[in-house]
Amino acid sequence: MSLHRLWAIIRKEFRHIQRDKRTLFLVTLSPAIMLIAFAYLFAFEVQSVRLGVWDADQSALSRQFIASLIADGKFSLAENGNGYESLRGAMMRGDIHLGVIIPPDFEAQILAGDGASVQLIADGSDTIAAAGGVTRFRQRTAEFARRLTSTSSAPPIIVQAQAWYNRDLDSTFAMVPGLVPIVMIMPSLAIALAITRERELGSFETLIATPIHAFEYLLGKLIPYIAYGVVSASIAYALAIIWFRVPLRGPVPDLLAMTVLYLFASLGVTLFICGFIASQGTAMRVVMLLFFIPSFFLSGVTLPVDTKSGPGQFISFLLPASHFVQITRGAFLKAMGIDQLAAQSLNLFLIGVIPFALGILTFRKRV
Amino acid sequence: MTTHHLPLTTYAPDDAVIAENLTRKFGKFIAVNTISFRVARGEIFGFLGPNGSGKTTTIKMLLGLLHPTSGAANVLGYDVVHHPEKIRSMVGYVSQKFSLYTDLNVIENLNFYGRAYRVWGKQLDARRQIAIELAGLVGVERELTANLAGGFKQRLALAAAILHEPQLLILDEPTAGVDPVSRRDFWKLLYRLAAQGTTIFVTTHYMDEAEQCHRLAFIHEGHIVATGTPSDIKEKQMRGSVIEIDCDPPGRALEILRQIENLDETALYGSLVHVVARDVAAQQPQIERALRDAQIAIKSIAVIPPSLEDVFIARAKG
Fold first, then answer.
1. Any idea where the domains of chain A sit in the sequence?
2. Which partner for A262 in A267, A324, B31, B207 could form a disulfide, CB atoms 3.0-4.6 Å apart?
3. Contact: A211, B66; criterion CB under 8 Å
4. Which residues in chain A have Cβ-Cβ distances shorter than 8 Å to B89?
5. Whether pTM exceeds 0.80
6. What is the pLDDT averaged over residues B230-241?
7. Residue B253 to residues B150, B245, B260, B278: CA-CA distances in angstroms?
8. Do B116 and B223 lie in a common domain?
């Protein structure tokens, strides 16, 4: 191990990144741009939120209220419940995103001028639909109430919103931190292209004929991409805070440290696998198939993981994004630090260090 | 895998490379088949053979990048299987395909490879300057490698391989695809390095380059079929004699001659026909008769000294 040699590799790698516009874009701005695209995509995806309604009042006013909710088609009535359990069952099955409970004295209270309260239950595991749905529900209820009482300034209908499975649900863009693990796959794509390009150009063949140690080479490749990865993640975080107004409640240094662990894990796996791939085209497809697509569906970013069966759950555990999505959501919304996310952090470290070690052992066997 | 150390008695400090029964199989395919050769320190050793004959596989074994299936090799006193790092730190390697980084400039490339071989600081500055001057790269130091012409790239690859002052330089077809003038310049460089005491192991399929080597080994389908100095190979290792025929039309003559039995080899060299005959006294009249019968005009027919190519083709056949 020679620090001097390691430094030579790091410097060379930084130059490669800075001189190739495509790579530079992948490891700086592309995650932030993808984040914007995904955030709006999912926010507008919330166009049709499925409601389950338990109308305990069965009055003219309660039916009027329900009709006003679904009038423009952005809410659809998917379940007519007759109790908490029927709503819970529908939500567990994924049939509904929101449960609305109209109390038996709804009409009577409003007519008496006391103001009624409606209970709203959101599926917190489906943050994307739920977060958008809750906001929209509040708006609809307020509009309905305003029409009822054009004279009074105080809205007579209070929405008591409660999220099942996730309590920190208040903004349309609360899902933005959860999207960060997906957009932060771009540095992995960049390193996959870089390592296979070196192979395609034949530079790797000359490199392994030098006394460079596998450890120096792999670490020297990894460090610049982790450094740029932190930069691009910071841009994405800033965007989440400033543009999407998602509060970062946890400590910043902890979040950055865990971001480094995520980059180490995802880049470590990529580096190992791409050591056996000869072309950039294949490398790109492998990263997409290995990280991008499963991270979308199996990491809990868009779908709740716990409803998946055995093999899905196992793959989910191996995906760095599964652990990091808990970290970003925890750090942003639940004010969690690295101490409370120690298990996820350790998992990320292990997911990274094992392929890294295997990469060292198989380094010169890839001639 | 059955590799063995060379017995100590066979190692001579005058040898830079010793290969003994070196063999490498890929599945059932035998890329290198029990080859043995020695490269003396300070000599330019030419390793010749057509594409796919086992040259690159042999080089990879000498660099410790591929393990031999059987047999052994010793480079600069170290066994290739057990001490590849030692060997790699004392050897300079120029690969077949240009492989330096095209997005780095000349100096950046040289600095990187120098440091890879643990040369740095003032020593690196000094040796880099020497290498730049030696390789004729003065004036293009800050040029991006992608913008260099082929001959410059080749000399840069060589410069990168000599910064650590290697005792042995291994070059795998270094001049493939380079224009003749650049090739000549490149060989002048190799001579200067050899004069400074560097052992040079070079593969090529250019016969004019082979002529410039001190000693040659010719590899064909994994076997070494001839070794020796160029003149030794031409004078002593030819089986049969080369008869050169100037006739018209040569293509038709070739067809006629191929129907004659006992001729080892018939080939066109430009507009001339070369025929290898074991028994000139008996076969030359036979050839002349056959051509006359076919009404082909013979302008001249004579036995000529064989070229390296003649010998290699003849040896490759059997």
1. 3-41+173-365, 47-164
2. A324
3. no
4. 211
5. no
6. 87
7. 40, 9, 11, 19
8. yes
Which of B290, B226, B289, B305 minimizes the C-alpha distance to B258? B290
Q: What count of Cα atoms within 13 Å lies in the side-chain half-sphere of residue B22? A: 33
Convert the pLDDT of each residue in A33-84 to its tens digit.
Answer: 999 988 887 765 555 788 999 999 999 989 999 999 888 778 888 888 888 8
Q: What is the pLDDT of residues A91-149, one digit of tens each?
A: 877 678 889 999 999 888 888 877 888 999 887 656 666 767 888 888 888 888 888 77
Distance from CA of A213 to the nearest CA of B (A): 9
Mean pLDDT of all residues in A283-291:
90
Q: Which helix (H) or strand (E) holds B19?
A: strand B15-26
Residues B175 and B263 in one domain: no
Percent of chain B with pLDDT over 70: 96
Q: What's B256's domain CATH number? A: 3.30.70.100
Domain that holds residue B297: 238-317
Domain A47-164 sits in CATH at 3.40.1710.10
For residue A205, give the nearest of B85, B88, B99 by CB distance: B99
Residues of B with CB under 8 A from a CB of A: 60, 63, 65-66, 85, 88-89, 91, 93-104, 108, 111-113, 115-118, 120, 157
In the prediction, which pLDDT does B2 show? 42
My answer on whether B191 and B46 are in the same domain is yes
As a whole number, mean pLDDT of residues B49-70 equals 93
| Residue B179 pLDDT > 80 | yes
pLDDT confidence of residue A90: 85
- ipTM for the whole complex: 0.82
B151 with B280, same domain? no
* CA of B86 vs chain A CAs: smallest distance (Å): 8
The pLDDT of residue B144 is above 90: yes
Shared domain for B247 and B113, answered yes or no, is no
Tell me the nearest-neighbour CA distance from B57 into chain A, angstroms.
10
The secondary structure of residue B144, as a DSSP letter, is: B
**Helix A252-274 vs helix A342-362: crossing angle, to nearest 10:** 30
The alpha carbon of residue B203 and the mean position of all alpha carbons in its chain are separated, in whole angstroms, by 2
Domain check: are B224 and B250 in the same one? no
Beta carbon pairs, A and B, within 8 Å: 71
Cβ–Cβ below 8 Å for A16 and B85: no
Which tens digits make up the pLDDT trace of A137-170? Answer: 888 888 888 887 765 555 578 888 776 655 545 4
A-chain CB neighbours of B112 within 8 Å are 8-9, 11-12
pLDDT of residue B31: 96
Statement: residue A186 has pLDDT above 90: yes
Cβ pair A16:B100 closer than 8 A: no
